[in-house]
Amino acid sequence: MHWNSFAEFLAMGNHAVYVWGSVGVMAVLMIAEPMLLVRGRKTLVARLKRQLRAEQHESVANRSTSNTHRSQA
Amino acid sequence: MLRAVIGRDLRLAMRRQADIVAAMFFFIIVVSLFPLGVGPEPDQLRRMAPGVLWVAALLATMLSLPRLFADDHRDGTLEQLTLAPQPLGVIVLGKVIAHWLVAGLPLVVLAPVLGIQFDLSSDALLVLTVSLLIGTPALSGIGAIGAALTLGVRGGGVLLSLLVLPLYIPVLIFGAGAVDATLSGLGPQAHLSLLGALALGGVFFAPWPTAAALRVALE
Amino acid sequence: MLRAVIGRDLRLAMRRQADIVAAMFFFIIVVSLFPLGVGPEPDQLRRMAPGVLWVAALLATMLSLPRLFADDHRDGTLEQLTLAPQPLGVIVLGKVIAHWLVAGLPLVVLAPVLGIQFDLSSDALLVLTVSLLIGTPALSGIGAIGAALTLGVRGGGVLLSLLVLPLYIPVLIFGAGAVDATLSGLGPQAHLSLLGALALGGVFFAPWPTAAALRVALE
Amino acid sequence: MTDRVINWYKYASPQTFYPLAGKLIPWFWALAALFGIAGLTIGFLIAPTDAQQGEGYRIIFLHVPASWLSMFIYLVMAFWAGIGLAFNIRLSGMMASALAPTGALFAFLSLWTGALWGKPMWGTWWVWDARLTSELILLFLYIGFIALQAAIDDPRRADKAGAILALVGVVNIPIIYFSVKWWNTLHQGASVSLTKAPSMAAMMLWGMLLCALACWMYSIAIALMRVRTIMLERERHTDWVRALLSGNGHDTSRHP
Amino acid sequence: MLEASNLECVRGERSLFAGVSFRLDGGEMLYVQGKNGSGKTSLLRMLCALTPAVSGEIRWRGGPIGKLGEEFRSELCYLGHQNAIKEELTPLENLLSSARLAQEALDEDAALDALALVGLRGREDLACRYLSQGQKRRAALARLVNEKRALWVLDEPYVALDPAAVELVAGLIGTHLQAGGLAVLTTHQAVSVPAAAVRELWLGDSDATQRPQ
Amino acid sequence: MLEASNLECVRGERSLFAGVSFRLDGGEMLYVQGKNGSGKTSLLRMLCALTPAVSGEIRWRGGPIGKLGEEFRSELCYLGHQNAIKEELTPLENLLSSARLAQEALDEDAALDALALVGLRGREDLACRYLSQGQKRRAALARLVNEKRALWVLDEPYVALDPAAVELVAGLIGTHLQAGGLAVLTTHQAVSVPAAAVRELWLGDSDATQRPQ
Ligand code: HEM
Ligand SMILES: Nc1ncnc2c1ncn2[C@@H]1O[C@H](COP(=O)(O)OP(=O)(O)OP(=O)(O)O)[C@@H](O)[C@H]1O
Ligand SMILES: Nc1ncnc2c1ncn2[C@@H]1O[C@H](COP(=O)(O)OP(=O)(O)OP(=O)(O)O)[C@@H](O)[C@H]1O
Ligand SMILES: [Mg+2]
Ligand SMILES: [Mg+2]
Question: What is its main location (chain A) (predicted)?
Answer without folding.
Answer: membrane
